[in-house]
Design a protein that fits this description.
Elements (H helix, E strand, L loop, with lengths): L1 E2 L6 H7 L4 E4 L2 E4 L4 E13 L5 E5 L7 E2 L4 E5 L2 H15 L2 H25 L5 H40 L2 E3 L4 E6 L6 E2 L6 E16 L11 E6 L7 E8 L9 E8 L11 E6 L4
Antiparallel strand pairs: 1-4, 2-3, 4-11, 4-15, 5-7, 5-10, 6-9, 7-8, 9-11, 11-14, 12-13, 12-15, 13-14
Helix pairs in contact: 2-4, 3-4
Length: 279
Amino acid sequence: MQALDARVHPIARAGALVIAAVLHAGTAVAVEQRVQCVIYPSMEIRLASATAGLLSEVPVERGQTVQQGEIVARLESSVQEVELSMAELRAASNIEVEIARARSALTDSRGARIEELYTRQIATEAQYQELQAERRLVALETERAKMEAETAQLESERAERLLALRKIRSPVDGVVVERLLGPGEFVHQDAPVLHLAQIDPLHVEAFLPTSMLHAVEVGMQATIFPQEPVGGTHAATVAVVDQVIDAASSTFGVRLTLPNPDGAIRAGLHCELTMQPAR
């Protein structure tokens, strides 16, 4: 997933050259002449799978709206489902721990009798030493049983997460631009399944003349005029002011954030913008 690079039509640079800024009482004031711009998605994603496998389902189509976390594709996962069931069964079983505890209780009971006989000098030194060794072995077996139970729990969690990787989820709220693979096709890490775009907010890219370099700053407001059939006026906020000037055109790039909660403004439209005077 990566943010969209600025891709502004060449006419936006040409239009920027005719914009001027005038200084009035030490404050930059933008003239009403409009700058050409282009509207883009704030993010475009070529969504791939974290694991390889055969696609079993892609329940979304081009143009469909998707929500963050929504399952947009599934890989065939019958083997992983069986492995998860087996791991959960082992994790739920406490047999080895109970066996170790039962053996420990038996050793303690037997040991109490041998210690009493040893105190009365009826049991031999060898029997007493054998008892101590058996107690150490039983303690180690109990610890091993507990460790195996914890390992079984971790194996169950691992199997659950591996199964979850067979479901591909949308990382953003957005729309499906293109479905690149379908059911029955093989997916690997370098093969994207879907092309998604985040369209709320949108990004507006434009180029301004260097004369406006000190008159534009992050946080300034601007008015966007999308081309027809969208039309209208829309408020946007300057999010990025490039620190590198394009020497060939003597312009610098700006990116504005344009809210689009109802999806009425389409990405890819040309537009014009005017900067609001700084206050």
